Amino acid sequence: MRDPEEGSDMFDHHCSACDRRQLIFPSMITGMANTDQGIVLAFECWCGAPQTALTGKATEIVSAERTREPVAA
Question: Organism's domain of life (predicted)?
Answer without folding.
Answer: Bacteria
